[in-house]
Specification:
about 0% strand; single chain; Four Helix Bundle (Hemerythrin (Met), subunit A); mainly alpha; about 70% helix; disordered N terminus
Length: about 180
């Protein structure tokens, strides 16, 4: 009898960690949504990089076109963030650590949505009065830096959430030339 009790006690000490009680379908939904959002942020970063590269050297029409592409990417990310918010509701999280990470992620998603409006859609629109390319060139570095800073903050929150629920996101796949 003692041997059985000791075996049960030892088994309890060396048993593998208990997997989250979260259904696999929910974890899969988290993973798909994080990948979708990552792809959307990559599109914004790519458009932002092209915009920044052309600010000083390119002609007016190129700068305006780059701002238009950036705005399209920002609008798409904003829609994706709005659609994804319910997926990450803190009440759905499987445990306290995940709940905290979820709250932080949802908060950063909201801040990023605001930043997309302020520093992309309103701050770098592709049309306006006067010589618009000059305005984009003047304000581009300011709005770009703020947008990049907020994208990095979102990335940190998304990575923390993924770790909290035990998701290892696959690496980005290289894309061909655009």
């Amino acid at each position: 009898m003692r041997t059985g009790i000791v075996a049960v006690m030892l088994f309890g000490l060396v048993a593998p960690p208990i997997r989250s009680q979260e259904p696999d379908s929910t974890v899969a939904t988290y993973e798909r949504t994080l990948i979708l959002l990552r792809d959307s942020t990559v599109r914004v970063r790519s458009a932002l990089q092209q915009f920044q590269r052309d600010l000083q050297l390119a002609g007016s029409q190129t700068v305006i076109n780059r701002a238009g592409r950036l705005n399209d990417a920002c609008r798409a990310l904003r829609r994706s963030l709005e659609a994804a918010r319910p997926v990450f509701r803190p009440a759905r999280a499987p445990h306290d650590r995940a709940r905290t990470a979820s709250q932080e992620l949802v908060s950063e998603m909201g801040v990023l949505e605001t930043a997309l409006g302020t520093h992309c859609l309103d701050g770098l629109p592709d049309s306006g009065p006067g010589i618009w390319a000059d305005s984009l060139k003047a304000w581009g570095p300011f709005h770009s830096a703020n947008l990049q800073r907020q994208l990095a903050a979102y990335d940190g929150a998304a990575a923390a959430f993924a770790r909290a629920v035990g998701i290892r996101l696959p690496p980005l796949q290289p894309r061909g030339p655009s």
